[in-house]
Amino acid sequence: MLIKDTLGVRDKALEGRDGSSRVGKSGAKVTSASVTDSASAAEDTVALSNRSKELARAHEAVVNAPDVRRQKIEELKRQVANNEYQVNAEQVAHRMIVDFLGELV
């Protein structure tokens, strides 16, 4: 079983790795055939939690998400550069209090 299949990750660095060869403890390349022929060869396994799988999927979604806020960001940059950007202190304070109280619950 491949880790990338378990996580649902499609990373170019992982593509082309089919597990047909590995590096042994001595640093020499070991092929799958020689490993299976050896009676004393042990296979390493990795168990990933559901949380790590969710994080990997979330990371992939963020990386592949389109940049839909570019126009808003450019407008805010323009306002800041022209000293036109105004902050509503009451809204900021209200949001900070709501967020803080939400963390307590």
From TrEMBL:
Alphabetically ordered keywords of this record: Bacterial flagellum biogenesis, Repressor, Transcription, Transcription regulation
Top-rank taxon, per record: Bacteria
Domain Anti-sigma-28 factor FlgM C-terminal: start-end pairs: 44-97
Organism field: Desulfarculus baarsii (strain ATCC 33931 / DSM 2075 / LMG 7858 / VKM B-1802 / 2st14)
Gene Ontology biological process terms in this record: bacterial-type flagellum organization; negative regulation of DNA-templated transcription
Comp. bias intervals (Low complexity): 30-42
Protein name (database record): Negative regulator of flagellin synthesis
Keyword Transcription among UniProt keywords: yes
Known function: Responsible for the coupling of flagellin expression to flagellar assembly by preventing expression of the flagellin genes when a component of the middle class of proteins is defective. It negatively regulates flagellar genes by inhibiting the activity of FliA by directly binding to FliA.
Region annotation Disordered: where it falls in the sequence: 14-42
Family of this protein: Belongs to the FlgM family.
Keyword Repressor listed: yes
One Pfam family recorded for the sequence: FlgM
